[in-house]
Design brief:
With 302 residues, the protein is mostly helical. It is 52% helix and 4% strand. It has a three-stranded antiparallel β-sheet with strand order 1-2-3, with no helix packed on it.
Length: 302
């Protein structure tokens, strides 16, 4: 049973380019169900012996332990995807999850920052004229100017930026490359970091654009700590995650006339339906002001 989980996850990574974090989440969900199933039925030793009552018992088990509807829905979706693969590969004749429904999940709009909060957050690193301060300003400016995912930003190498053309070459999900234009404020912050910050932090032939105090590539966790530091310094009380700047970028672009398909391309969404979520947030108090230096309306059309 474990072998078939590994084969399923390996196929997801190779054919669909799922990230390491997504694969790990799938593995945890499937292992959780397998452990539950074996505990309920000690003689169960094959996925073909799982039936609908056992799947329903698992859902009840999750609800009794306080899992949110969204968490239960995700685990059911993972199990459905796994069994669809087993049937498709003829490793199972029937799918016990086929008629199992998922809990209804209220779709919440993502959190975005107000214009004032964006300004305060981007201004916070200016109080620190140190290599780290130069780095942190470049990180925040670039996140808001590009809408990149955290994993995409931490994966950037020095040769992925072109300050002359004001573009970033970004590797997204499934190793798909895209070019993102950036505004003058982000270009200035990056140039300052490359000239005055990064050389003082890198002791070896490091190719990573953003590095930690030890001169090694900045991790997702390290980036999250950077954002938390300046959220606190800017006295922002609303919840902020690395993805908050990505959401704020999307809403900002739509509020200022960007084409939906262009925003989809900039964000690297596979489906425009994902990008359409942001249209529900247009013309709200959370929109950012149009006079920020990052705003270069003509560049978003290139």
């Amino acid at each position: 049973m474990e072998k078939q989980i590994w084969e399923f996850l390996d196929e997801l990574q190779k054919s669909k380019g799922y990230s390491r974090n997504t694969i790990e989440a799938y593995r945890n969900d499937l292992n959780q169900f397998m452990n539950f199933a074996v505990n309920e039925r000690p003689n169960l030793n094959n996925w073909t012996r799982v039936d609908k009552p056992l799947v329903l018992a698992f859902i009840i088990h999750l609800k009794e332990r306080g899992y949110t509807p969204s968490s239960v829905a995700r685990k059911v979706a993972v199990l459905k995807s796994f069994y669809h693969s087993l049937v498709e590969r003829r490793l199972a004749d029937t799918d016990p999850t086929a008629t199992v429904g998922s809990p209804k999940v209220e779709k919440r709009l993502p959190q975005v920052l107000s214009s004032n909060e964006i300004e305060r957050l981007l201004a916070a690193p200016l109080n620190h004229s140190t290599p780290k301060g130069f780095r942190d300003r470049a990180i925040l400016e670039l996140l808001f100017a590009s809408g990149m995912r955290v994993s995409e930003l931490t994966s950037l190498n020095s040769d992925d930026i072109n300050l002359h053309d004001k573009t970033i070459h970004c590797t997204g999900r499934g190793d798909k490359r895209r070019i993102i234009p950036i505004g003058d404020s982000a270009v200035e912050a990056l140039a300052n970091y490359v000239e005055r910050g990064r050389p003082a932090m890198v002791a070896t032939d490091q190719v990573a654009l953003f590095v930690n105090p030890h001169g090694e590539r900045l991790t997702r966790q390290g980036l999250w700590l950077v954002i938390k530091e300046y959220v606190k310094e800017a006295e922002i009380t609303s919840p902020v995650t690395p993805h908050t700047l990505r959401h704020s970028f999307a809403v900002h672009q739509l509020n200022h006339g960007a084409d939906l398909a262009n925003v989809q391309r900039l964000l690297g969404h596979a489906s425009i339906a994902t990008t359409q979520m942001y249209t529900r947030m247009m013309d709200t108090p959370a929109e950012v002001e149009s006079n920020h230096p990052n705003n270069n309306d003509t560049s978003w059309e290139s």
